[in-house]
């Protein structure tokens, strides 16, 4: 009789008979591997082998769990032995690695005067999400303070993402009032809570921008004085742009 047989024949002096023996662990078995088999560059996968008693990974641990961080698509092989040590089985698993997109951010200018228009664009992926939540390859804003603008790009094929950022510096150019208005141009109180009172002396247009240059409010009035409801704005720093005729003033304000 050889290992792996499930029966044998015994011949007696009176009559032949067949005795069937169940040999534990002598039958075949298979190993299965579970885990995430599709990665983006830099990610790790936890491979978990099952179906055997003991395991040995090639170039890996002697356990059923193997944490891998491949840089390219790779194959992993594990061998397992049954609980009785009577037989072994082998399984091979391929883990695919997709590259992250290469994101490039561009600005119409990287040094601008305060309040100047700014266009940011991005390439290298299929879809994009900017710091503000905007989802477009191009955004337009007004620059009031030096900021770092970030965007995340996603590849629709692999789902892999990458983030890039670009700093745009803002300088006070001649003729721009950065902190206070002069003459009849007044915005108060500062800091403010729910309302801003505006006095220009002429019909005006008022725009409010956050520190990133995103316009969050605009009011156009034909009167010289007006109370502007800004209760919906969150606490923080804002820039009020007042325009009347050919004149323009930028005033930094604080929402409590």
Largest sheet: 4 strands, mixed
As laid out across the biggest beta sheet, the strand order is: 4-9-8-6
Strand content: over 45%
Spans of 5+ residues with little confidence (pLDDT < 50)? Answer: 1-12, 17-26, 175-182
Q: What helical percentage do the residues reach?
A: under 10%
Query: How many strand segments?
Result: 23
Mean pLDDT: 83
Task: Specify the number of helices.
Answer: 0
Terminal residue distance: 90 Å
- Rg for CA atoms: 35 Å
What global shape is seen? elongated
Structural class label = mainly beta
Order of helices and strands: EEEEEEEEEEEEEEEEEEEEEEE
Question: Key terms for this structure?
Answer:
single chain; 256 residues; mainly beta; 4-stranded mixed sheet; 54% strand; elongated; disordered N terminus
Describe this entry's structure for a reader.
This protein is an all-beta fold and 256 residues long. Helix content is 0%, strand content 54%. The strands form seven sheets. A four-stranded mixed beta sheet has the order 4-9-8-6, with no helix packed on it. The protein has a four-stranded mixed beta sheet with strand order 11-16-15-13, with no helix packed on it. Strand 15 and strand 16 form a beta hairpin. It is elongated and about 95 Å long. The termini are far apart. The relative contact order is 0.12. Mean pLDDT is 83; it is low at 1-12, 17-26 and 175-182.
Q: How are the secondary structure elements laid out?
A:
Elements: E1 7-11, E2 16-20, E3 32-34, E4 38-40, E5 45-50, E6 54-57, E7 65-68, E8 74-81, E9 88-98, E10 104-107, E11 111-113, E12 116-123, E13 127-130, E14 138-143, E15 147-154, E16 161-171, E17 186-188, E18 195-199, E19 204-210, E20 215-221, E21 225-229, E22 236-244, E23 247-255
Parallel strand pairs: 4-9, 11-16
Antiparallel strand pairs: 1-2, 3-5, 5-7, 6-8, 8-9, 10-12, 12-14, 13-15, 15-16, 17-18, 18-21, 19-20, 19-22, 22-23
């Amino acid at each position: 009789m050889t290992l792996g047989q499930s029966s044998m024949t015994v011949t007696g002096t009176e009559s032949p008979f067949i005795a069937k023996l169940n040999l534990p662990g002598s039958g075949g078995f298979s190993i299965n591997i579970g885990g995430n088999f599709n990665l983006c560059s830099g990610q790790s996968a936890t491979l978990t082998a099952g179906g055997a008693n003991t395991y040995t990974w090639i170039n890996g641990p002697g356990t059923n769990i193997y944490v891998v961080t491949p840089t390219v698509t790779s194959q992993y092989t594990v061998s397992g032995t049954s609980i009785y040590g009577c037989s072994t089985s082998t399984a091979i698993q391929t883990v695919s690695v997709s590259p992250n997109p290469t994101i490039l951010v561009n600005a119409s200018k990287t040094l601008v005067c305060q309040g100047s228009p700014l266009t940011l664009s991005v390439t290298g992926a299929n879809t994009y999400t900017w710091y503000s939540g905007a989802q477009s390859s191009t955004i337009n804003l007004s620059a009031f303070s030096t900021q770092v603008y970030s965007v995340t790009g996603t590849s629709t094929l692999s789902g892999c993402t990458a983030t890039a950022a670009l700093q745009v510096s803002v300088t006070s150019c001649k003729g721009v009032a950065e902190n206070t208005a002069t003459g009849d141009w007044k915005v108060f109180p500062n800091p403010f809570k729910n309302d801003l009172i505006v006095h220009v002396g002429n019909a005006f247009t008022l725009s409010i921008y956050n520190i990133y240059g995103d316009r969050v409010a605009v009011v156009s009035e034909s009167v010289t004085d007006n109370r502007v409801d800004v209760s919906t704005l969150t606490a923080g720093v804002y820039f009020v742009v007042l325009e009347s005729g050919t004149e323009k003033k930028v005033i930094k304000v604080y929402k409590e």
